[in-house]
Amino acid sequence: MLPYGRQSIDGDDVRAVCDVLRGDWLTTGPQVAAFEAELARWTGGVPCVSVTSGTAALHTAYVAAGLGPGDELVTSPLTFVATASTATQLGAEVVFADVEPDIATLDPAAAHAATTPRTKVVTAVDYAGHPADYDALRKVTDAAGALLVSDAAHAIGSRYRGRPVGSVADLTTFSFFPTKTVTTAEGGAVAAIDPRRLEAAARFRNHGLVRDRALLRHPDEGGWHQEVTAFGLNYRLPDVLCALGVSQLRRLPAFRARRAALVARYDAALGGLDGLAIPARRAYADPAWHLYPVRVRGGRRREVYDRMRAAGIGVQVNYIPAYWHPAYEDLGYRRGMCPHAEAYYAEQLSLPLYPGLTDADQDRVLAELLAILT
After folding, report:
1. For 43-70, what is each residue's pLDDT tens digit?
2. Quick one: pLDDT at residue 69?
3. Among 5, 61, 71, 74, which is most buried by a count of CB atoms within 10 Å?
4. Residue 1, in any domain of the structure
């Protein structure tokens, strides 16, 4: 079965991990800082805090934003549920706003219409690696007095109007799951422009511990003393995984180039095909494509999915609208709230896309798909 996405691990990655395994620090050591510094090269210098997953990154970013009971978060439903569920678990109310019908990112007009005096955060999702319209969304958050968060789980290496994703929102979250462009096996990170929010994120991912003597309530207990001034969690990404992340980030230019070449081949083969729409792209965006999301017209998405899977082609659907999940249905959310997102979901199909996909593999994908559609 050809998967829709998979990691690309080479000898340098393996050696980086083995070096840590042979060393003194498996966690809370020098590779953590090295990974965060390497990641900041891809965020335009915006500093980062590493965490254990993309979900942990969202949770940590929302804590750093001060999100909690009585607040509202506006976001897209066309995303993995964690974009919303981490806010729900903090006691905030999630307000879903519709997407732009061609690129499936948060529609600034819909986001504006969804804001209220209780809006604390607006979270955009860089769907498939294509950045949202951050200039328009910044106007929305400025008018609402809210923070702008970027869920860039798909978008490491993407650029918005020439600026790297990670530098355009107040807080940006990344995921390094194996299907993502860069992997740490499991892992994530938060980039924060405001140093105070960066510090809040760093404390939260380490149980809320404070060691700075100037900030301790009881500073004279001894050199061992540390305090929890606000509760956090253990979201620390260990050195052994950070070492893999450093090695992977150094390969990101090659990953990005190979994905772009595969996208160009898909575009050339599928552009203009009746019954299928290829991914749209806005002039402001330079995406580092994580997914290749086509839209299967004519109500045939389920048929194409089943037939491609039966042929050993691991296509995928990304994603069920978040408020369709029973956990949100049980909170009173109903289908029909975001018609553009639901229409996109009804047709969406992700074709295999990863650096190790050979031209021959891709030709097989294309041959099977064209045989079904033509």
Report:
1. 999 999 999 999 999 999 999 999 999 9
2. 98
3. 61
4. no
Is the pTM value of this prediction over 0.90?
A: yes
Active site residues: 180
Answer yes or no: do 339 and 190 share one domain: no
pLDDT in tens, 341-361: 999 999 999 999 999 999 999
Q: Does 227 share its domain with 273?
A: no
Helix axes 82-89, 54-64, angle to 10 degrees: 50
* Rounded mean pLDDT, 150-171: 98
Q: What one-character DSSP code corresponds to residue 316? A: B
Say if CB 99 and CB 78 are below 8 A apart: yes
Q: For residue 5, tell me if it sits in a domain.
A: no
Counting the structural domains of the chain, the total is: 2
* Residue position matching structure tokens 């029909």: 336
Q: Give domain status of residue 44, yes or no.
A: yes
Helices (H), the chain: 11-21, 30-40, 54-64, 82-89, 108-114, 134-144, 195-204, 239-250, 252-270, 301-310, 326-329, 339-347, 359-373
Q: Are residues 271 and 218 in the same domain?
A: no
Average pLDDT, the chain: 97
Residue 165 belongs to a domain with what CATH number? 3.40.640.10
Question: What is the per-residue pLDDT for 60?
Answer: 98
Q: Residue 310's Cα: distance from chain center in Å?
A: 29
Structural domain containing residue 368: 252-373
Q: Both tokens of residue 307? A: 């037939």
What CATH number is associated with residue 335? Answer: 3.90.1150.10
Phi/psi at 99 (5° precision): -105, 165
DSSP 343-367: HHHHHEEEEP--TT--HHHHHHHHH
pLDDT digits (tens, 9 = 90+) for 302-335: 999 999 999 999 999 999 999 999 999 999 999 9
User: 156: pLDDT confidence band, cut at 50, 70 and 90?
Assistant: very high
